[in-house]
Write a structure and sequence with these properties.
The chain has 231 residues and is mainly α. The protein contains eight helices and two strands, in the order ααααααααββ. 59% of the residues lie in helices and 2% in strands. A two-stranded antiparallel sheet has the order 1-2. A hairpin with a 4-residue loop joins strand 1 and strand 2. The longest helix has 40 residues.
Amino acid sequence: MNIYVSQMKDILKSYYNKQKKYNEQIEENNRRFSEEYAKKENESVKQQQTQEYERTQAIINDIYRTAREYLAIASFPNVEQLTADRHIFESGMDLSVETVRAFVERYSNPYNPTMLSYIQGWINKNNKTDSKQMFGKYDSIKIITPKEQLSVYKKFGEGALRIANSIYNNGNIMIQPLELDSYADEGFSANLFNVIGDGMSLSDYKTARVPSTAKNSFDNINLNDGQNAIA
């Protein structure tokens, strides 16, 4: 499981349990008090519900923005991430598809976008086509860029916001557990997790030597809660 997606799911579970208690409190007030007094008490509870919903939205967005910032930094080449393997690609030698794939796998876990970018440049240079062949021999090798990873985090973030909205707007909260449990299910989301991995190495980019503006390069890619973009 990815650490950032896990954090989103944890906050959703916490939010669900809190909203469930608020709803139970409203039902208890309706049962115990007169209509007028219950209405007054419930207004306070509903205000707390709204505050908790807004807090949950903010936390989900903060988790997304953390991943977004680290991926923005990762998108800048970092000489500290270059290894001796770069000389193999600098030499211009012809490598087999299997060999290049092995290098891609090596630098995908842990994620090293600088070396992957280096390998991508070599592939682009050597992946030539001719009249007999529609695609070059390295065409099937897929290198996932930081921006492509961010698009997956965006899907998870917006999914979390939709579930939070569903919990907030549904008085019969007991119907929500199935939707919550299926969020970021490792079976259903396997293809997405293949793109972002466990996310553990992203925090390494906090101290990367890149331009100060690097962390802001993806700032225009915001979450949308279904109604509004959340910066």
